[in-house]
Request: fold
Amino acid sequence: MRVTIEINGKTVTEEVEDRTLLVHFVRDVAGLTATNVGCDTTSCGACTVLLDGRSVKACTVLAAQADGHAVTTLEGLTGDDGARHPLQESFSRQHGLQCGFCTPGMIMAAASLLEENPKPTREQVREGLEGNLCRCTGYQNIVNAVIDASGQEVEK
Reply:
């Protein structure tokens, strides 16, 4: 089947199998590899992207379901001038990453959270990122990064 998806502002059209997952369309067809394939069971969130502005796990969405819609990946958060998104800056500043595998999904989930709730509490951040797993950190610095990106004071 023929699928057309706007990814990071660019239209991508490709003939794919009906069973092609959005995560594979993003990585293999569009060549955007920040979106990671982790568990293929919706458990880890490494594949989180924004679909029409809302975070989804791309391993549970068929490319056909995204046909005619807009997808934003981590690469799409970078400004036209190459400037990093405030969430990318805060994850770096607050040491909210270690190996980096979960980071793209965490940042995309956090972007959706901050769009819905620009000044979340620490508990709301934890709830908002609940479906995204990190096997390296204790989440403290990830929560700090989201709070920092929201412009709030980070607890020391």
